[in-house]
Amino acid sequence: MNILVPSPACAEPEEPLRLRPDVMARLDFESIFGNSNPVELELGSGDGSFLANYAALHPEQNFLGVERLLGRLRKLGRKGGRANLTNLRTLRLEAAYLLEWMIQPGSLAALHIYFPDPWPKRRHWKRRLINANFTRHAEAALAPGGRASMRTDNAPYFEQMNEVFRAHSGFITTDSPPELLAVTTDFEREFNAQGIPTLQASFVRRGAGAHEAVSGPTPNRNVP
Known about the structure:
The chain has a single domain, classed as Rossmann fold (3-Layer(aba) Sandwich), CATH 3.40.50. The protein contains 8 helices and 9 strands. It has helices spanning about 30-35, 50-55, 70-80, 95-100, 130-140, 155-165, 180, 185-195, and strands spanning about 20, 40-45, 60-65, 90, 110-115, 140-150, 170-175, 200-205, 220. Strands 1, 2, 3, 4, 5, 6, 7, 8 and 9 form a 9-stranded mixed sheet that branches. Strand 2, helix 2 and strand 3 (about 60-65) form a beta-alpha-beta unit. It starts with 17 loop residues before the first strand and ends with a strand. Mean pLDDT is about 90; it is low at about 1-15 and about 210-220.
């Protein structure tokens, strides 16, 4: 796997929010952010439209956006810089590698995975980010009561997301908070404008703070 090893060890001056860590070590969030606030991770931040806005709404939380495409990552960094978001950091790395090898166990309050590549051809499904292996690493990374939230416009991928999380004993289905759903991505707004609904689901890691769900995941059909 090409894990896009960052070099040099520190961010360039024009990218103050970008991390360039040792990819053979677990991330120390308290050192990175300078506090012990809860950390939320977005895998595949795209152009940063969700994370920059959500981080601005929650200064009491820390946020890390991970994206493998440099242009998109820099766009998120610029948005965070213009908004003076001291609670936001960015990282260029493969999402699956980061989650498995660089996140301290139980260190995340939330995972956000919005519109990952659906790899629509059946022969490519093995390349999808969210699979049975993903749920194991997500459980390890999340603190008890931590939430994994997902969105897609691809119905077969949505079915797979639900299938693997429901099959994992470490997670229970929960409702996505309305204030979370209200913060959308640029891709999402484009899809919704075309009449394509957002399919969304959230799952909570079992343990202290986790509560049984009252309903299952449903599409968010608030589209024009």
